[in-house]
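User: Okay, second chain of the day. Same drill as before: sequence in, structure tokens out.
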Amino acid sequence: MRQLIILCALTMPFQAHAASFQRPIPNPQTATAEFWFLTASVGLLLALVAVQWLVRRR
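Assistant: Same drill. Structure tokens below.
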């Protein structure tokens, strides 16, 4: 029994091999993503203009 425990303890590190790290490759930008980015950018600019207009009126 003791030999079995020693054998398991010695072979345990060999069972825990991990795969090497594969760096994720980002997907290219799609036309839909570019459209929504444009929409968000225009919305942000309009919000900044509205804030400037409100602050200037005070």
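Residues 24 and 30 are 18 Å apart (CA to CA).

User: Thanks, on to the next one.
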